[in-house]
């Protein structure tokens, strides 16, 4: 791609900014009014930007401009990361072994942020239906340390009872001499233990709509 002139870059940046703020692109007339130049001059810039591969134009539409390459230097790049979807927490420190990772998903802000590590689990029971979390939902967890120092009372966590046979997704409550893992569905009894290992704190809930054919 050839380098843009200063004015061509200004026009491209204006189109990108206008589209971002209004959801639709500007017209040729609006570009001309912004830069106080003639419609012919705007059309010349648009033709040059098309030729250089940074702008597309759909004919016979007034708002037909589409930026193909956003060249704004201050354009914020969203943080993106690939996250393992794990089957169980019982693997302990070897949480992300090949046998324990079902697949990976890629998420960006605002579901994730830089500086944290994440994993996902698929909800298997109805213990949190009172919070609108249902079987089949994919929950994104921020990894925590073994002491769960980042976890506050009422947070939804992914945890395991040391020596237990199941991974638990419940609300965390710290009592004087034990930890209570409690669901929002009264059909599920609270689980109490002094030996709870919290692997992660809930960050986001992902749900895929089921469309009946």
How would you portray this structure in words?
The protein has 213 residues and is α+β, with helices and mostly antiparallel strands. The chain has 3 helices and 11 strands; from the N terminus they run αααβββββββββββ. The chain has helices at residues 6-22, 28-35, 39-51; strands at residues 55-57, 65-67, 80-86, 101-108, 118-122, 138-143, 156-161, 167-174, 179-182, 191-193, 196-206. The strands form 3 sheets. The protein has a 7-stranded antiparallel beta sheet with strand order 5-6-11-7-8-9-10, with no helix packed on it. A two-stranded antiparallel ribbon has the order 1-2. The protein has a two-stranded antiparallel ribbon with strand order 3-4. Helix 1 (6-22) packs across helix 3 and helix 2 crosses helix 3 (39-51). It is elongated, with a radius of gyration of 26 Å. The model has no long low-confidence stretch (mean pLDDT 85).
N-to-C series of helices and strands? HHHEEEEEEEEEEE
Strand order of the largest sheet: 5-6-11-7-8-9-10
Supply the helix-strand structural class: alpha+beta
Q: What can be said about the biggest beta sheet?
A: 7 strands, antiparallel
Please report the distance between the alpha carbons of the first and last residues. 46 Å
Mean pLDDT: 85
The helix content, as a percent range, equals 10-25%
Strand content: 25-35%
Layout of helices and strands:
Layout: H1 6-22, H2 28-35, H3 39-51, E1 55-57, E2 65-67, E3 80-86, E4 101-108, E5 118-122, E6 138-143, E7 156-161, E8 167-174, E9 179-182, E10 191-193, E11 196-206
Helix pairs in contact: 1-3, 2-3
